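Usage

Read records sequentially. Each one opens with the input sequence:
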Amino acid sequence: MTAGNSFGTLFRFTTWGESHGPAIGVVVDGCPSLLPLSEADIQPYMDKRRPGQSKYTTQRQEADQIKILSGVFEGKTTGSPISLFIENADMRSKDYLEIKDKYRPGHADFTYFAKYGIRDWRGSGRASARETACRVAAGAIARKILGKKILVRGALVQIGPHKIDRDNWDWKQVDKNPFFCPDRKAAAKWEAYLDKVRKSGSSAGAIIEVVASGVPAGLGEPIYDKLDGDLARAMMTINAVKGVEIGTGMGAAALSGEENADEMQEDGKGGARFLSNNAGGILGGISTGQDVVARFAVKPTSSILTPRKTVDRKSKNTEVSTKGRHDPCVGIRAVPIGEAMMACVLADHYLRFKASRI
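and closes with the structure output:
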């Protein structure tokens, strides 16, 4: 039996804490020794995910200041477990008093109670996306293992029904708008769209794309620990994610064999180069050396002002409307979370690859 709070094989992390508890944190195990590491290496990624940075995310104010408690000495990793601590500072549990006995449709309220027989109604406890701050911290350490040659980047490519124009893709735009959007024109349209969603008390879903460049060929373990299988699982563990695809993904079903085949040519260096990347950088569960590309879909935030039919803990019919501070589109802050999970999976398989070769 597993408690479901840990992820990874050689590079493995375990998160702990609840949304409205005194703190949250993560223990990272399997990190090699002698890697330079400090809070300053982790904090920029925490800042990218933290709430309250624009009117399009929850207005909960958390500094998400990271503190290293163990596993680092004189600025370098020791090889022992790295424990990271993040204080919770801006909890408003009273916002949830009115719904503490009601299950929010689309939320984990009902299923958590069905499993554990206890309800932490303070911001949904362990089911809250607050936990994902811990993953981002673990992802920062994973990036140190991967080094500078492997670059992991994410972008928001769709909010609600509104997609980006891929001809306008510009990575430089991602940090210039509140949506992590690579299409400047799409970002401007999203502002007006989300303003209406936010003011109406509703929410919208989103699709995030994560790309890892510089990944060497050979990462991945057949048959049941495939790189794409682990990536799909990693993304599906993120709160509110309901779909994952690698490369062309679901679109591959509409292609012919000729269209889908990523043709190969010699690269002049004793290797091969690919003429396309429908496979998303993974074949047979093993990386090809191309960009590793994953996309995941995030459903609309379940906490909305519009009354919805539900039942309470006594199985009586009622309605629920959620007040308080919530993301009108939780997919926005899922971008750095998706990056972190990609980095963790790649770091895990990188260490496994190194361990399997003389």
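Summary fields computed downstream for this record:
- The radius of gyration is 21 Å.
- The mean pLDDT is 92.
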